[in-house]
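Section 3.1 - Work completed
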Amino acid sequence: MTKMTLASYPHMLGFEQLERLLERTAKGSEGYPPFNIEQTSDFSYRITLAVAGFAEEDLSITVEDRQLVIRGRQAEETEGRIFLHRGIAGRQFQRSFVLADGVEVGEAVMENGLLHVDLTRAQPETIVQTINIRKG
């Protein structure tokens, strides 16, 4: 059985980048930190990451080439502390989310160990374009 790709459909013109984007996004990203994505209205979303133990200054949020990138890095403050068990993950992380055209990043809020990042999508405009046919 042959794997069908977007490029193999003759009516899907110019979607090669989308196919590469889907393949890149599907390639594994580890499960840390866990996150939720919820639709908060017809044109808005919220990404929530569980970042217990991270302070606001330990986190950075950037948009790079239509990707929302959230990074976390905690300063090592273990001096003078002796852990008998260390089960709370505090390792650095990077989570990337690909943004469609028209999706903008709004505000980010820390609340009870959760980082909320709000996104809005521009409402689509219906555009009808008439193409004139010239005689050859």
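Second construct:
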Amino acid sequence: MKLRDIAIRAGRSLKQAKARTLLTSLAIGVGAFTITLSLAAGVGGRAYTDEIVNANTNVKELSVTKKAPTDQQGPQKYTGGVTVSSSSLFSGQYLSQDDINKILKVDGVVSVSPNYSPQIKYVTRSDQAKYVATISTFSPSVTLKFAAGSVNGDLGDNEIILTEEYVTALGFSSNADAVGKTVDVVADKLSSPVTAPESNTFVYTVKGVSSKSGLAFRAQSSLLISNHSAKDLYDYINLGTRSYGNYLVASVETTSASQATKVKDDLTSMGYLAQTAADVLGVINTFINVLQGVLLGFGALAVLTSVFGIINTQYISVLERTQQIGLMKALGMRRRDVGRLFKLEAAWIGLLGGSIGTGLAVILGTIANPIISKALDIGDVSLIVFTPMNIAIVIIGLVVVSVSSGILPARKAAKLNPIEALRTE
């Protein structure tokens, strides 16, 4: 018999036992559903983290800190004074200007920008209340979503980007109204007497207003100014203190993304701790892969359970159709064709179950995407992303598993003696 005729015959046989076929297919569908959703969540999660890292970091940049000397690593004896825990994010060692100059000489390094992070007193404007604020440096490589205004390239000196919260707090009538207006940033000089601190007001013109984004996280609460303006603030606040000229972190820009890895190795050999955007992405993706592996494990368990269901269904089918098999063989059907018939029946069950499971997963994922995005407040970002390739792999894989499960029942059917089969009641 032709393979096409055998496939049609297999489909008809399954229709005669609709309830049993459907129940067995649904068992496979549970595994298909779980596996499809976990693969989609993995694709969406990795794509989202990739976009976050790319939107908030420059692939050509490294974050560099100073590594603690070997004799200062591990548990340390208390010798008095202020100590830094070895479990803290930083080693407790500061980058000095000498370190900055040394890093600048490394082959492939374009620029080194210390993280100034000036600690201001408050931000305000004329006839408005005073508000505590965090100042960060603006980077052109960071993707920002603007509610009003925009920035082409870097910020100019004495320009600032507000957040929507500060627009409301500082009494502007709208986001657009704030653009072009000025705000006052007041800072204390730390070297001045505590009883009579010296203060200075730095005036900045609002260049834009950043809004919440599912990708950009640097602008969620910080007011952004240029690196040069941040240095001016830092110099005023810290000049004359022991902390002046000491930095916990510095951003090192290289000539290219590929060069960043080489520069990282060079800096590591020099006693620095360096981290690229790829390192950050790798850590996040490792976490996502672990979660995805757990979900795939549940899906594989469901598929394994369904395998026994297919074997049982096919064995019952062989027993119920023993006379029919004997008649087909008596009429000239070859053993190979009988085996193919039952294998194709198993393939139809796998195809049906895989299609039902993946179809339900796509429908549920499509419905859940906006709900999840709204619940997590990440904007129009899809965390469940279905790809035709993954769906096809799941369905084809389940068909292969089903056919493999039907091999034993198919062999039993193929080996039946036609005379003995026809005698069976």
